[in-house]
């Protein structure tokens, strides 16, 4: 009997006419399938597996006609793991369907026409509805769509399914997606009269029995696996002679230190040599880059060569009206040449020039399905010669006659490599031609081993996941969503599937407990019950909303929070182009151009869930990046790789022959053998399956690096690295995270005097390793991310709106909240499942334990070596180590990290004192929140029995009267209670003498806390003792009430006040409740839940903010000078001290303090006033870096506040202020004098200070921007010369030294010191912030301020006379060390926040950024938020356009609003003008407010620049040196010009300076409108411009 004799004549005749003969796989499959047995067909690609599975079913449909319900006619179900594969199969079925039908008609036999339908996630809703109304005979679907059909009314169409075909079963069997599918198949069998026949199609897999077990579950499966005749032509190609010498020229003719230009050129040549090529890459990012570069190089070649020298350009994309995706691209494509540029690997993403996609296109999961369909069609039809793909084309899609496959970088596994190379020669009997191109030297060995094992068919072993409880939870909710299900029936059904065949009953019950509400949903809302478990009758029933939850949040593929990319201009939202990673989008801006699918796209708009783009053909484009988990090397492959290196290294003579047999070309052989030889020479050993090498060397900073060389793969190394990190932390008290990779791990240890650890650091007892890794995993980032994914699969993180993107950061936030609750319960199923997944599916812990046993028994040796520099293997490992920290170490950003690490919240609370919340909390808010918590508001009333059960679960026991208040009017709550009581879901309980109703889950809690007798029939599961029953009851009471007293909670439960107080104290120790005074007009201490208080605060503050209407920005500009007393509102020494208190810590140019800042605030200011304060010790000044023109940045401090306002001294190469001469400048260089007569062109002063006080020594400065913890990054001593060190040593004893005294002290050990050298060294220390003086005179003399103090006395004090041995004027006075600054970051942050409120009145982000505070606005915001919570400040939107994060006090806001202008009332009022230094804190422009838009030169907060404000608006900006002026706004009016000119002249006169203005708005000053106003203000015309002499 032949294989075809089993079929009907029509089917046999069609096959015989279409094919020469059945393949072995087809013959074996038909023999097994025809018996009705479950069958697994294993054969390589191109062996006719799909037709083998379908032909028997098609024949049965033709022959066995049945009279079925038209809505239940589907008999064959084909399940594909890929949507595209399903579409491909549907297309390929047309030939046999039509062929058999036509043959039957020709033979005179009945010729029914079976129908075929496709349902997947891409199927439009109307088509899905049509499929449900008229189901096809053959339904092609995906695992997820099958699950959705079984969980909806569409399942009725499946009741007559006879055959289930599962294609590419090996691709899902080893994953949770496969476990999910296995349960769906068992659920399908529950629907059927008898189980359907299952036919699995698989590529070569090992062991076949494991896949067969997965396919059949508890039923036997026949395995059809004929010997494979598949032939491979595999080669490993290296495009350069020496991979260590990459300095040659790439294809673009430019020299490059990268292998990529050579790889790109090699790929281009290979593609042009063949008709069709698929290039596989291991990441989407590399796929996009390679595609762009191949096209760029091809464009260059076409431009350079004649038409006869190169193949003609492939035809452009079709322009058919029915192809929307292609039409949109072709219609918008511009004409003309494209500019090429090298696509070097740049940072995260790289760049391509935007070459037209004429030769290759990218195909991966982030390209839209429409675009992928176009690409696949173009490749099959020959219109496209090359596709660069990821695993998206790995599975069995028929790509037509592909000539060759090129794999860039070694494939992730042997099985993956076989699938990819199998895309070439896909037809029966075809030879699959493949090339592997290693990416770097370390990739040579994996490429060679993979090639060798691919040729031998030695694929990795597949393992079916065991008992994934998250999948069980999801499928349980789905299974009971439509109708009740018996618990035992469901347990038996689950156990029939292979992944759950060994499911313990305890784990099953624990999962049901989770779904039935065993865990507190009041702590995390999504823990609310999803099913009702009737333990008495043994049934499971879905609660309302269960079906919607299962349908909208089902599946196993993790949600990565991707942004959809859509074409602009479509009313329905645009054509979908693809998707981008959330992090990529956050780093992008409107106008950016990126490449996707080989087309450049310009971002037009970014919304909360999509990126809207337009084509940008030919423009240089950024290549996107996508974050993703890359699978580690399997242990089995690692062992083979180790054996390969051992054998090659031990037999160098025969190595070349073996390598040629593995397909390596001569350059690959030379590079690989050299690589192993150099490693052998460097360390004495090559790591192998029998020898592991620990290499130790010092890095660039002198710290130790320990590198473990091991071939066993990341799955083994990652848990090993966790154990090593724990050991380092335990032994050395430092966090030295070990970075693991496929080839070993890297550990960095700080330099110590002790001998660094060696190989012993990596050796563990096998028995201790399991617990050690388990303990460490729980605190790892991997565990947190996997918990998020598991919780989402278990429906604990549901999608509120399935049609909208769920931001990944929000998913992480919710998952962390859930984990915090779940961690309290050791048996929480999803925590256990996450641990199982990490240890079994992600890590290979059994493999690591086996390795430790081999090390202990000496089967594997661990050798140690020390090297002067990293070995070749170590360099490859270190590249990955550095890369991880380059790309992942920046998250969180430095500013956020400073905010997270620097604050001691406990100390901050103590500094702020006890919060007076009675003044802050709104009584109406307290009332409303209390009503909401007690479910008394209209929108929270219970509407049915299920809602009533939730009510009792959330609020605790309630009386019948209390229940009646919380249900919908007209409801019958007593009837609901009786119904719930009969179902054993609620009980009656007598509490404090009153009958209450409570959920049965509270039974043990009420019994143990209050001694409530329990009714008969309470299930045993709810009788287990509770750890803290009183604490649970009191905690729930707190969570569901506004502020309450001890008496309230005690009377509620009939407890003594002492018992209630004790429970509250325990909760307060855990920071779950707080004690204080909260309710206005109440008396005595109250208690409140921490989360409730947060809501009360937030809503009270929101109500307060709504009362404030924001003022325009110019109001802030008018308010700020008045707030800082500008206009001469202060007088005398006390006025000067008040200014210093307000401006304490602000660095300003020394020349500006006495010429502009102090005179503008103190009407009778004289320099002697400041000298008196410094001499008496009430004021201290400190330097912050030198400026050109003998000037420098100086801050003033009161003696009382100086420990918290003085900067922390550090060393470096100069701050931004020193480099640019400004705080927040635009980067323009600063030179010249601020005001004529002040800072001249330089020269040497009497003190010997040249060029602004900088020397050729290492620059030293005070950088207020300390490290993340708020600590100094170094000391002054780190970069001082010998003379500076001698000065510091002399001053270290305390007290003040006159210059001559200091000279004597320094010269005592050095001989005579030159005055000029000593003065220069002294000024170096001044600008370093290390040394100060008891007088401002040296700064005054150095900066050229002409005013000298008149000899007069204030407040009865007098200045000391200048000593005769005082030295030059630039060093007069007594010198001393700057007082030590307090380095506690919390105290400094609190003081900075207070100082900002005092200085600006209204604190905004711009003000904080302009001061360059450590930690930036993030840290200040954190402190000010605590100020707000304690009632010391208010947050609100006080000034328009400056964001919502503004802080002020109540009286300040009222004062700010008083500066609002009434245009009508103020129309006749003359304008008010003030002149300020551009760097003056009273100038809001360039900090809180933006500079006005102006063409040409931009204003900036530069040293020496002056601004003039007219009625708060910027009127004039005067550049440093005064030569150029810009006018704005008010300067257009004559009155504004007059006021501005008068204010400017007044400032010059007060500062005793001269000023010359040469140009106004780029024109010669004389004769301009502003120039005329200046003349009227006293400026005199000169040949150079307008000048005012004082």
UniProtKB/TrEMBL annotation:
Region called Disordered, residue ranges: 108-129, 1340-1371
Keywords, in A-Z order: ATP-binding, DNA damage, DNA repair, DNA-binding, Helicase, Hydrolase, Isomerase, Nucleotide-binding
UniProt biased composition (Basic residues): 1347-1358
GO molecular function per UniProt: ATP binding; ATP hydrolysis activity; DNA binding; helicase activity
DNA repair keyword on record: yes
EC numbers, comma separated: 3.6.4.-
Enzyme class (EC, first level): hydrolase
Domain Helicase ATP-binding: 30-223
A GO BP annotation: DNA repair
PROSITE patterns: HELICASE_ATP_BIND_1, HELICASE_CTER
Record keyword DNA-binding present: yes
Protein name per UniProt: ATP-dependent helicase
